[in-house]
Amino acid sequence: MIRYIERHAIDSYWPIVSEYIEKAIEHACGELELQDIYQKLHSEEMGLATITESEGITAACVVEFIDYPQKYAMRVVALGGENMKSWLPELLEFLDRWAEENNMDRIEQMGRDGWIRVLNEYGYQKRYTFMTKELNHG
Length: 138
Hints:
The longest helix is centred in the last third of the chain and has 18 residues, at 84-101. Strands 1-2-3-4-5 form a 5-stranded mixed β-sheet, with helices on both faces. The chain is an alpha+beta fold. The protein has 4 helices and 5 strands; from the N terminus they run E-H-H-E-E-E-H-E-H.
């Protein structure tokens, strides 16, 4: 079962989901830390969904709401957990409904190239490659 977690309930779920989120963002380039996500969930700049199976919560998905001048988007910024093959199709359907119910124009996902192979069969296409160069000022 996939459930959207309301802002007032985030603190109840945080001890469980923070582990999954932290593992998901450890491969990022330092744009977000766990505390940033926690704060943005409370300010509703981001949203949280949990994936529950018979053994309890097994995964978490964090999305950011992006208001471009011409588009309104939901961007998956962290997705982590166990047994992904068992819940990924249901999560993607959930995200589609969530985006449609909130009049969003698109769903975005940034991640390592391995996600291209996983998400292609669900209608996602590679549009951009994000590359970074860290600068030392000192």
